[in-house]
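#structure-requests
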Amino acid sequence: MKHSVIPRYMGVVTCLAICVFFSCLLPATAWARSTGIYGRSQVATSNQQDEAKQHHGTEKTSVTILVLDMSGSMSTNDPAKYRCSAANAFIDLSTADDYVGVVGLAGGQAQGWHDPILMTVKNHAILKSTIKQRSLDCLPNGSTPTSDALQKAFNMLAQAAQGTSINGSVILLTDGQPDPNGVEQINSIQNKLVPQFQSQHWKIDTIGLGANNPIAGGPFPTFHDFLYGLSTETGGEFHDDSQGIIQGINALNITPFFLDIFASLRHKSVGGDKMAQTVDGIRAKNFSVSTYTDVLNVVVVKENANISIILKDPGAQSISEQNDNVLISNDDPYYTYFSVNEPRSGSWELDIKGSGRYVIQTLNDESMNLANLTLTQNQQTIADGQPVALNNPVTISTFFTHNGVQATPPDGVDLNGTLIFHGPAGNFSQSFVLQNVKDTRTFSADVEVPASAPSGSYMLTIDATTDSRANSIANTARSQVFISFPEPYLLSSQSQELVPANELVMSKVIHWDPVLVLLYDHLPAWAGFLSAWPLQQSPPLSHAVIQGKVMIEKPTLQPYAPIKQLRVSVLSPNSPSATTVPVQISHNGQFQLLVPVTGSGIYTLQFQTQGQLKDSYGMTISSLRKIEVSERMATPLQEGIAWLFTIAYAYLAFLVIRFVIGVTYPHPSGSWSSSRYGELDGKNIRQAHRTLFQWFFHPDQLTSRQLGMPAGLRFRFLRGGVIKARAEGRDASHWQFGNGDPVASQYTDASDLLYKEDDDSNETVRYTVSAETDEGDSLEGNSFKKGGLFGGKRRDDDMDDPYEL
């Protein structure tokens, strides 16, 4: 008997153990399935991308790094330690679609407190516990190495990405400029880290606590300007704790800021209170839940721990215990979080008991949603994180989805939008209405933010309501940077005036004959101007000459000279792909480009423009401009003008060459002397006269007559004092060399010559021709010394010299 009873009891115990195990597991499993957060606990290291794919299919993984400032000044700016509660609230809201990591600025160092970890329910507790332990329970201590902290955050994102595309972001919470070496850190952030974040399209949202102190000697005048610039450059948002729901500078604004950022990263907006409320005793607050709500998420931010919160459904039943459909997080003293799966529609109630200020925030998941916003400007779709230009219309559009599929809009629905900006440059707000596009299920509106509005990150929110805005059924939001960019404007080819961006610029292309194209297309760059007159300002090849000017609204349109980057690509009507063309930038923002033409038609020019940091925050904007090209052959008159100029160029070039030859060739110098009947005669060769034509074409030659001798010879003067002569004309027969040989028709060395006046006469005259030495003396005879350009003196001053000058 005993042997038979024991196995029976063992079976019963085993069954009970299994039941207990599943009773513990099922609530968490049901909650995880209903909210989408169920998954393995896994640090985001080598396996995180595979795990993300298992959870999310082909969707991008969302990875956020929290950078929390624990520097000593936080004892003044956040003595209640709200910043750690804000991080905890962000973690509680995160689901299994998210990874969250943490970097701390504690003890004067940037510390990686935890690599990005998948936000399962279990990992929520792990990450919150890590923050509590590593921050020593949010203890202020040390300086603010912001640059190192952002570098660690970037490295965490890069490790999480592992070569894949992720939705990466950083939330930087700090209460002062980087320290130590603040300006050096800021320059490092601007020059090194910002380009890295921009290249990956990872945004940095910033939260500034405390006073807006000045920064001496840096690129930003104040602490808030630095944070504002950092967020704007990366497509994030800047939050100033003096501009939050709680009035004045108050660290209690930190948690609502974290909730705003959480919603914005998911293209949603936060509902609930727009201002802080006060309770002293018990206060009830009602809010409506629609039939489209799948998950009700409510966060009540509390000023102190003595405020307690009770949530009641439309049947007045308190939501006080966790079950398959309810998650409650109330272990933090400064907020209480409720998440209810498949809540009943109707009026819900929050009972707030205690004394102090509080803020109610809602972030519901709806089955009926608005799709992520699509923005287009200048016929281009603006990607998330890409800036748009102020003073340029932008089309904002969205549509309804039901369970992720495009759906028919509900009856009587209105879509209203707002654009809101808060920053160091001021505040701005603009409302607009989206209209249903005819015969579609899309809603859109054209919005233009004026040039006078501040540049920076705007919160763009669309809210869908029914019953004259009484009930909100869906919303979508997007953080969008608007900047007064330097933009290119094309100039009219006739008037040289700016052409509006949406108008065509006319351009005529002339085709020249192949010889002219061959001549002028191969000119070096420095000589390119030579084609302007003959080709009447038209390029030799089939190119359209387009001139323009970069302008900026400040607040009126004015030229912009400090262009950091200007790139242009051209899409022709006959080509499926764009071609990059070079741009010549001159003074005062003016530029010129040659557009290759493949036929008449409309060509699209896509400009990529970037100004200085203070103007465009390191961002590049795309602008489209269009030109209409018409082609024709050059007229006979145009061809004639081109050839006249070409011939004139050739003649001028010839003259220049001859001038160079005339200057560089050896010129006649020296002297000659003759002896007849014992009488001496002679002349300085420099006294010889010659024509301008001879100077250009034969600078090294003289005839005997030009030298003052009888006609019949042509002399050529070479370097090194060499003189040659040849016979010229019919009088050449009267001349002989000193040895009696006749003078030939080819140049021959000649320094001693004989001249006979006629063939019958035996009387001869001897001529001696000599060149000059470097010292100016003749190589032979030494009868004359070197003179000026037109002559000189004989060395023997006592001689009676009829040629003395």
